[in-house]
What we know:
By secondary structure, the chain is an alpha+beta fold. The protein has helices at 2-30, 57-60, 149-152, and strands at residues 31-35, 50-54, 68-73, 76-87, 92-96, 99-103, 111-112, 127-130, 135-139, 155-156, 160-169, 175-176. The radius of gyration is 21 Å and the shape is elongated.
Amino acid sequence: MKKRALYFLKEVVETVVISLAIVLFVRTFLFQPFFVKGESMLPNFSSGDYLIVDEITPRLKDLKRGEVIVFKNPKNPSIFFIKRIVALPKERIVIKDGKIYIYNKEHPTGFELKEPYLQESFTPGNIDLTLKENEYFVLGDNRKASYDSRAWGPLKKSDIVGVVRLRAWPPQAFAFFTY
């Protein structure tokens, strides 16, 4: 009887240890949960939204314009932000008269950035900046109430935690995100 109890206890401990190792691996290297705080991404993301962030993509691939990312605040790395990528490495971004213009190899004369995910496309500010290698320009969707690259400049790729892939809460707003 004692042998059976010890065997059962050993099996339970092994199962718990293996499960914890798997969860720790997934949370450390693959996916990270994130709660939205604040209104900078309204109307697309609200305070209290529970998101799952893909940590693999930034390590393996170039990020794309329009992707929503979570990253460490460049001024205080213990705080995390959520914003949308609007300009990519080595691009020139100009914000003028409420509009965003992007200049790159494919568009040397520039193009006006169209953002169908915004209710109001007016972007306050006056910026003319060329990004370096591994730098991104990010903005909140709620342009009038967002602390973003307009305030603190380009975001380094090394500060990026991951790409938002899933909104799990609230249930009525459940969504997968492919950009």
